[in-house]
């Protein structure tokens, strides 16, 4: 049974989903990292590809940009297609001096200015956190492979362009590693559906030291390290 945004049957989607933001990145993952891959849905240019990764069935599907877009796809995947785990593989801007461009961040939690943290329980700001087993799997894999990853909170913003730059130093003082636009939405969807989620992010630019942005091509290709950490989290 198709949903308004995913045009395939429940069995066409694997229980484990890799979710980049960019549809082109999703296609690249499908064609370079998956075996026996097939296109199972292609609605509004957001394709879903299902195959196997190291023998494990997985689907890769983009989320688009921002909490609202991701929340549509994640909710339908969890509630209608029996998905158990989603791992976001994306980019973020660095906030902490401890991280540099091209570093990998595993987002243990997500602060946010989005209403997704408050809308379901009036008067309460929900704690939006990664699933422990996925977080553990990602960190254990990275350490076993001697990969450097940073583990901590990120900030999910509803605004890419904002004049409110004054909040960045405060977030930095609280140990926030980076800023992006989807992780809090994913963690909220997982919570609502009693499912699991994690975000693994590559730092593409740095708000504090002004390190240069990655190019569009680099953003597409320079995610292999984060991808392998994400796969380990999904399988762990």
Automatic annotation (TrEMBL):
It comes from the Bacteria. GO terms for cellular component: cytosol. It comes from Tessaracoccus lapidicaptus. It holds the Pfam family PNP_UDP_1. GO terms for biological process: purine nucleoside catabolic process. This is Purine-nucleoside phosphorylase. One of its GO terms (molecular function) is purine-nucleoside phosphorylase activity. Keywords: Glycosyltransferase, Transferase. Residues 16-230 form the Nucleoside phosphorylase domain. InterPro entries: DeoD-type, Nucleoside_phosphorylase_d, Nucleoside_phosphorylase_sf. The keyword Transferase applies.
């Amino acid at each position: 049974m198709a949903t308004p945004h995913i045009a395939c049957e429940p069995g066409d989607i694997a229980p484990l989903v890799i979710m980049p933001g960019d549809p082109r990145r999703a296609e690249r993952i499908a064609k370079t990292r998956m075996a026996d891959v097939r296109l199972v849905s292609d609605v509004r240019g957001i394709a879903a590809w299902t195959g196997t990764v190291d023998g494990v069935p997985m689907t890769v599907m983009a989320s688009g940009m921002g909490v609202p877009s991701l929340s549509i796809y994640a909710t339908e995947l969890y509630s209608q297609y029996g998905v158990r785990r989603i791992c976001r593989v994306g980019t973020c801007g660095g906030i902490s001096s401890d991280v540099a461009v091209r570093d990998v961040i595993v987002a243990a939690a997500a602060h946010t200015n989005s209403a997704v943290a408050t809308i379901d329980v009036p008067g309460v700001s929900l704690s939006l956190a990664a699933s422990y087993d996925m977080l553990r799997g990602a960190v254990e894999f990275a350490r076993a492979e001697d990969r450097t990853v940073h583990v901590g909170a990120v900030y999910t913003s509803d605004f890419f362009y904002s004049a409110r730059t004054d909040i960045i130093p405060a977030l930095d003082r609280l140990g926030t590693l980076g800023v992006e636009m989807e992780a809090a939405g994913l963690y909220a969807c997982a919570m609502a559906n009693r499912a699991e989620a994690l975000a693994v992010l590559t730092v593409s630019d740095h708000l504090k030291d002004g390190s240069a942005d990655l190019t569009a091509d680099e953003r597409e290709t320079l995610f292999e390290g984060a991808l392998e950490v994400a796969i380990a989290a999904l399988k762990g």
